[in-house]
Amino acid sequence: MDLDVVNMFVIAGGTLALPILAFVASFLLWPSALIRIYYWYWRRTLGMQVRYVRHEDYQFCYSFRGRPGHKPSILMLHGFSAHKDMWLSMVKFLPKNLHLVCVDMPGHEGTTRSSLDDLSIDGQVKRIHQFVECLKLNKKPFHLVGTSMGGHVAGVYAAHYPSDVCSLSLVCPAGLQYSTDNKFVQRLKELQESAAVEKIPLIPTTPKEMSEMLQLCSYVRFKVPQQILQGLVDVRIPHNTFYRKLFLEIVSEKSRYSLHQNMDKIKVPTQIIWGKQDQVLDVSGADMLAKSIANSQVELLENCGHSVVMERPRKTAKLLVDFLASVHSTENSKKLD
C-alpha cells in the first residue's frame, strides 16, 4: 500500500477518534443529553421549526412546518407526559405541503407550568383554545388530532368549540367510561385507593420501570439499550412531581369521563384510530365513539398497542392523509352542488 495512503488513514483515524470517543462517552455518561440532541436533529431534518407565543403571562411552545393554505391546518395534541416531538415519527410521512402545528400541552416541555393552572380536561381545553387564538389558527377551521390524553382534550375541544374545527382524528383517546375495567385501570384504581401515587405505571423512576412502561404501551417490543432507558428516566425525573399532580387531576371525578360526556356533541367528521392490542385504553372505546358520533369512521390497527403514532407512524400518517382527502373532496363537492 502506498505510504501516502497509509498516512491518510492514520490522519483520518486520528481526526475521527476524538468525536467517536466523545460520542461514546456521552452515550454512557449523559444519555439524556443525547436524547435532546436527537430530537433537535430530527426536527431540523424534517423542517419543523420551534416557536413560542404568549397569552398574557402564559407561554406556549410549539413546532410547525408549512403555512396555512387552501387545505386545513393540522393541530396535534400529544399524550400524558409526552411532548410535541412525539409526532415526529409520523410527520416524517406527511406531505410537506400541509401546515402542521405540534404544541406542548399545558405544563409540558416548553409550555408554562404553573401551580395555579387548571389541569383538568376542561382547563386544558381552555388553554389550547387560547393557543389557537394566539396563532389565529381558527381564522379558518382546522383539523384537530389528539392521542391518549391529547385525544381526550381534542374530543372535548371539538364539542366546546365546533366552529374552530372542520374535522377530527382521535387516536386511542382517554376519557371514556367502560362497562368493565381492563387490568391496567384496575391496577390504577387499587393504587388510588391505597394512596400509592409513587407507583403509577406511567410515571417511571428507574430504567426497569421505564422498560415496563414501554412494554405496557407498545405491542411491538422495542429493544432499548440500558443507557437509553436511563436517559429517558433522567429526562423525566425532574418533572415527575408535576406528572403525578396532572395524572391525579385527569383521573379525578371532574375529568375522567369528560369525552364520554361530550362525545354526542361532536358534529364534525371524525376519524377514530385504535391499536387492537392496546393494554392502556381498551379498543372497545372505538365502537363506543362511533355509535355516538354520527359522521365517524373507525380504523383498527393489527399488532399495535397504545403508542399508535410510535408503533405505526407510516400507517397512521396515511390514514390521516386519506381521511383529510375524503373529507375535503366531499366538502368541495357540496359547494359545487
From TrEMBL:
Enzyme Commission number: 3.1.1.23
GO cellular component, one term: GABA-ergic synapse
Protein's cellular compartments: Late endosome membrane; Lysosome membrane; Mitochondrion membrane
Any one GO MF annotation of this record: phospholipase activity
Catalytic activity: 1-dodecanoylglycerol + H2O = dodecanoate + glycerol + H(+); Hydrolyzes glycerol monoesters of long-chain fatty acids
Keyword Lipid metabolism on entry: yes
Boundaries of every AB hydrolase-1 domain copy: 72-313
Topology term for the membrane: Single-pass type II membrane protein
Location, primary (coarse class): membrane
Keywords (A to Z) from UniProt: Endosome, Hydrolase, Lipid metabolism, Lysosome, Membrane, Mitochondrion, Signal-anchor, Transmembrane, Transmembrane helix
UniProt cross-references to InterPro entries, sorted A to Z: AB_hydrolase_1 (IPR000073), AB_hydrolase_fold (IPR029058), AB_hydrolase_sf (IPR050266)
Transmembrane helix recorded as keyword: yes
UniProt xrefs under SUPFAM superfamilies: alpha/beta-Hydrolases
Pfam families: Abhydrolase_1
Enzyme class, UniProt record, top EC level: hydrolase
Ranges annotated as spanning the membrane: 20-41
GO annotation, biological process: long-term synaptic depression; lysobisphosphatidic acid metabolic process; monoacylglycerol catabolic process; negative regulation of cell migration; negative regulation of cold-induced thermogenesis; phospholipid catabolic process; positive regulation of lipid biosynthetic process; regulation of endocannabinoid signaling pathway
UniProt-listed PANTHER family: MONOACYLGLYCEROL LIPASE, MONOACYLGLYCEROL LIPASE ABHD6
Protein family membership: Belongs to the AB hydrolase superfamily.
Job description of the protein: Lipase that preferentially hydrolysis medium-chain saturated monoacylglycerols including 2-arachidonoylglycerol. Through 2-arachidonoylglycerol degradation may regulate endocannabinoid signaling pathways. Also has a lysophosphatidyl lipase activity with a preference for lysophosphatidylglycerol among other lysophospholipids. Also able to degrade bis(monoacylglycero)phosphate (BMP) and constitutes the major enzyme for BMP catabolism.
Listed name of the protein: Monoacylglycerol lipase ABHD6
Organism placement in taxonomy: Eukaryota, Metazoa, Chordata, Craniata, Vertebrata
Gene designation per UniProt: ABHD6
